[in-house]
Amino acid sequence: QIQLVQSGGGSVQSGGSLTLSCVISGYTYNKRCVAWFRQASEKERESVAGIDNDGIITYADSVKGRFTISQDMEKNTMFLHMNNLKLEDTAMYYCAADSMGCPPTGYWGQGTQVTVSS
């Protein structure tokens, strides 16, 4: 059974930093697309950053230069390092993985709240 378990997040002041982690267990497929999504209150879920099966990384324009996605294949863990956080980064963040291509929609983490205050 594939499970994605998130950790990290919390509250931080504007300009601060946070790191989210997502441990992927039970994943045996050779191909993997992983990504971080977020959903702010009363807004639709949006993709924040992703890594496709070829290792190509993409970011939403709103986070370029501030967020960094990475993964440790040996530990089956993906990360989202968030720097210079802004009020508009406040949202519930989700990790996701899929073997069928990007953006991943097959398997999801439980979500973790990130709150940025002034």
What can be said about this structure in brief?
By secondary structure, the protein is mostly beta strands. It is built from no helices and eleven strands. A hairpin with a 6-residue loop joins strand 4 and strand 5.
Describe this protein's structure.
The chain is mainly beta and 118 residues long. Helices cover 0% and strands 53% of the residues. It has no helices and 11 strands. The strands form 2 sheets. Strands 2, 4, 5, 6, 9, 10 and 11 form a 7-stranded mixed sheet that branches. The chain has a 4-stranded antiparallel sheet with strand order 1-3-8-7, with no helix packed on it. It starts with a strand and ends with a strand. The relative contact order is 0.32.
Explain the layout of strands and helices.
Layout: E1 3-8, E2 10-13, E3 18-25, E4 33-39, E5 46-51, E6 57-59, E7 67-72, E8 77-82, E9 91-98, E10 107-108, E11 112-117
Parallel strand pairs: 2-11
Antiparallel strand pairs: 1-3, 3-8, 4-5, 4-9, 5-6, 7-8, 9-10, 9-11
Mean pLDDT: 95
Task: Tell me the major beta sheet.
Answer: 7 strands, mixed
Taking Cα atoms only, what radius of gyration do you get, to the nearest Å?
13 Å
Q: Return the string of H and E elements.
A: EEEEEEEEEEE
Strand content of the residues, in percent? over 45%
Counted by DSSP, the helix tally is 0
Percentage of residues assigned to helices: under 10%
Q: Stretches where pLDDT falls below 50 for ≥5 residues?
A: none
The first-to-last residue Cα distance is 41 Å
Structural class: mainly beta
Note the overall shape: globular
Instruction: Please provide the count of β strands.
Output: 11
